[in-house]
Amino acid sequence: MRSTVSGYTALSKAHKFSAAGLVTAAGAAALTFALVPQASAADAHSAGVKPVALSAQEFGVTQDAELAKAVDAAAAQAQVKAGAAVKQEAKAKADAERASRSEARKALKPAAKPAPAKPAAKPAAPVKKAYADNLDGWISESLDVLRAKGIPASYEGIKRNIMRESTGNPRAINDWDVNAVNGVPSKGLLQIIDPTFKAYHVEGTSWDIYDPVANITASCNYAADKYGSMDNVNSAY
After folding, report:
1. How far apart are CA 225 and CA 31, in angstroms?
2. Which domains does the chain have, with CATH numbers?
3. Where are the alpha helices (DSSP H) in 27-60?
4. CA-to-CA distance for 46 and 34, rounded, in angstroms?
C-alpha cells in the first residue's frame, strides 16, 4: 500500500529498486529531480537540468501488477491443493471408519453353519445278466450260481443227465418208481425228490422244485456231495 507524503505518492520498496535502476541510467540530474519533487521547473531550467519524464512502466508498476497476479495465482493454486489434500484426508478417514464398522459387524455375525454333507452315492446296482428262457439258458444260469458257490459241474455233464432224466421237461414227474410208491416222487429236470431238494437247496435260487435253475442247482449240489460232481453221474442217482 502507498502512503502520500507532501502531495506525492511514496514509492514502494519494489518501486525504489526500479527507481535506482533508472537513476543509474538517467544520471545525477534525473536523480535530483526525482528526489526533490518540490523544485520548480524554473529551478531545474536555471540549473541546466532537463526534466526526465518517467513512465509508470519505468518505475516497475507494470511489473508489480504482474508479480501480484502471479502471487495471487500461486496462492490460489496452493489453496486448491490444500483443499484437495484436506478432502482426500477426510475421505481416507471416512473409508477407514467404514472398514472398521464393517469388520465389527462381521465379528458380531454368528459363524456360518457348515453345509450338510452330501449323502454318499449309492453303489450302482449290478446289472443282472440276461439268460434265455430255454434249456441252454437255464443250464448257463445255474452254472453261474454253482461257480459262485464253488460247486463243481460242467455244461456237458448237466445237459447229459437232464436229457436222460426228463428230456428237458421242467414239469416232468415220476409217478411209478419206488420214490413214487413211497409218496415222494422225483420231479423236475433232474428228477430230484422234495426232501433232497430242500436239503441241498442253494441260496439265491427259488424254493420251487419245478423252477428249472433251482432244480438243476440243488441236484448238482447233491451230486457233488455224493459223487464229486454231476459229471460223474451216468445213471439214476
Report:
1. 151
2. 4-59 (no CATH), 135-232 (1.10.530.10)
3. 28-35, 41-46
4. 17
- 193-237 per-position pLDDT tens digit: 999 999 999 999 999 999 999 999 999 999 999 999 999 999 988
Contacts of 20-24 with C-beta under 8 Å, sequence gap 24+, read: 22/54, 22/58, 22/59
Query: Which of 67-76, 103-112, 124-133 is predicted most confidently?
Result: 124-133
Helices (runs of H) and strands (runs of E) counted in the chain: 9, 2
User: Where is 219: in which H helix or E strand?
Assistant: helix 212-227
H-assigned helices in 10-154: 13-26, 28-35, 41-46, 61-108, 135-149
Residues 6+ apart with CB under 8 A from 229: 152, 153, 154, 157, 220, 223
User: Residue 148: CB partners within 8 Å, gap ≥ 6?
Assistant: 204
Q: For residues 99 and 105, what is the distance between their CA atoms, to the nearest angstrom?
A: 10
Whether the full predicted model's pTM is greater than 0.85, yes or no, is no
| Dihedral over alpha carbons 61, 67, 68, 73 (to 10 degrees) | 150
Phi-psi region of 186 (alpha: psi -120 to 50; beta: other; left: phi over 0): beta
18 or 140: which leads in pLDDT: 140
Query: In angstroms, how far is CA 231 from the centroid of its own chain?
Result: 65
